[in-house]
Amino acid sequence: MSLSGCWTAPNADIRPPGEPRVIAGEVEVEGVANSAKVESVDRAARILVLSVNGVPLSYGIGRRVRNWDDLHTGDTVKATFRDELTIYVARPQEKRSPDARVLLVDPSYRVMEVQYANGRTQTLKLGLLTQMKDIGAGDAITIHPVEVIRLHLRHDSIVPWVR
After folding, report:
1. pLDDT-based confidence at residue 130 (cuts at 50, 70, 90)
2. Cβ neighbours of residue 4 under 8 Å, at least 6 residues apart?
3. Three-state DSSP class for 124?
4. Within-domain flag for 13
5. Is residue 159 a part of any domain in this protein?
6. Do 148 and 79 contact (CB within 8 A), yes or no?
7. Which long-range contacts (CB under 8 A, 24 or more apart) does 72-75 make?
8. Which residues sit opposite 116 in a β-bridge?
9. What global pTM score does this model have?
10. Residues 124 and 112: beta-carbon distance below 8 Å
11. Which of 54, 89, 98, 114 could form a disulfide with 140 if both were Cys (CB 3.0 to 4.6 A apart)?
């Protein structure tokens, strides 16, 4: 006797039950962009604009980041960043689409996989104080960039990633 299985990829287009509401606000997350493009660097204000998943985001540069003086517009970097999220149940005819939607939530590891409007996915590590019980697949997310906490940049294909 043989058993057959069926697997389908997670879908962020589902709508969670209930009235539109905020589920969690000011949720601290840490994420990694393996290939982000530097759009601009404001050295005086310590502001870095990175194109992450095709979306330009403005980040502060964390105090522990050492090599940000080497950054130039057009560089490709691996960036570890800190964001604050607002997670909510969206209205069906919402005028502004969310920045991302929840695909999966894993409370045991405190991670959440999200899908951006362009279809790309990313795994985010949730802060210790986040109440995860009401967060589910299909919930909408608004992203508030906070700061870059680590940068690795590559000037050309010969130079390895430096810290």
Report:
1. confident
2. none
3. strand
4. no
5. no
6. yes
7. 72/38, 72/41, 73/38, 73/39, 73/40, 73/41, 74/37, 74/38, 75/37, 75/38, 75/153, 75/154, 75/155
8. 100
9. 0.71
10. yes
11. 98
Q: Which structural domain, as residue segments, surrounds residue 55?
A: 21-154
> Considering the domain boundaries, does residue 30 fall inside one?
yes
CA of residue 86 relative to chain centroid, distance = 12
Closest of 98, 101, 42 to residue 68, by C-alpha: 42
Q: Is the dihedral of CA 138, 27, 32, 72 positive or negative?
A: positive
d(CA 57, CA 143): 9
Tally of domains in the chain:
1
CA distance 99 to 21: 16
Cα distance between residue 4 and residue 114, in whole Å: 29
Written as one letter, the residue type at 137 is: A
Is 160 part of a structural domain of the chain?
no
Query: Model confidence over 37-63: pLDDT tens digits?
Result: 999 999 999 999 998 877 888 999 998
Q: Which of 34, 38, 61, 48 is closest to 121 using CA atoms? A: 34
Q: Chain centroid to CA 25: how far?
A: 15
Cβ atoms 50, 36 nearer than 8 A: yes
How far apart (Å, rounded) are the C-alpha atoms in residues 153 and 163? 8
